[in-house]
């Protein structure tokens, strides 16, 4: 079965997404809880819970003892990395906006270093996008949680931003991201460039990637 993408840009089978949404809706769940609420077979539920735990979506905890026998297990939603990501961005923005020269250029340079590190990891994703600068940017932005969407004009609309709360207080964060995507584009295709237009389309950011001339 082809994995489907959700609004959160997750790629799971339909039944695995049902298991994850069930745990998310209730905060925590045992195998029996999920089986009774979803109607899936116990072995199927166990396999999905194991895989979701391995992928970092869930944590397994030992349940409180109840009667005789070994205590069972419950699965809880893993904390999102977004909160720590936002705190990091806010701290970076505050540091760069101090009395130390051109904050935007410093932020862009910091983002470029980050982008070079991401580009060095090589191609990621499911191969749905082509090679070259545009494909590399789309893959990385998807993996970083921005839910990119290619437009008919060939640009990339970022439908989500892990740092939206931080960005509202500082455009320095946008400069970090612009440096990041530009470095990714250049790493994938020498001479290519990428630019970021913050909040350009209905409050969402727009990426423009140009191939080497």
Automatic annotation (TrEMBL):
Coiled coil: none annotated. Residues 1-30 are annotated as: Disordered. This is Transcriptional regulator. Residues 1-25 have a biased composition (Basic and acidic residues). InterPro entries: WH-like_DNA-bd_sf, WH_DNA-bd_sf. It comes from the Bacteria.
């Amino acid at each position: 079965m082809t994995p489907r993408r959700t609004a959160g840009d997750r790629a799971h089978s339909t039944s695995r997404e049902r298991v994850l949404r069930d745990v998310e809706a209730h905060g925590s769940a045992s195998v029996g809880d999920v089986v009774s609420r979803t109607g899936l077979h116990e072995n199927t539920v166990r396999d999905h819970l194991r895989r979701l735990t391995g992928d970092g979506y869930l944590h397994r905890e030992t349940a409180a003892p109840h009667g005789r026998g070994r205590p069972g297990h419950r699965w809880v939603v893993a904390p999102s990395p977004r909160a720590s990501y936002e705190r990091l961005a806010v701290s970076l923005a505050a540091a760069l906006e101090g009395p130390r020269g051109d904050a935007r250029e410093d932020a862009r340079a910091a983002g470029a270093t980050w982008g070079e590190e991401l580009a060095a990891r090589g191609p990621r994703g499911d191969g749905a996008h082509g090679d070259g600068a545009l494909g590399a940017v789309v893959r990385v932005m998807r993996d970083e949680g921005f839910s990119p969407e290619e437009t008919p004009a060939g640009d990339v609309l970022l439908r989500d931003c892990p740092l939206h709360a931080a960005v509202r207080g500082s455009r320095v964060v946008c400069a970090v991201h612009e440096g990041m995507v530009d470095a990714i584009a250049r790493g994938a295709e020498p001479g290519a460039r990428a630019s970021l237009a913050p909040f350009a389309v209905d409050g969402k950011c727009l990426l423009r990637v140009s191939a080497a001339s």
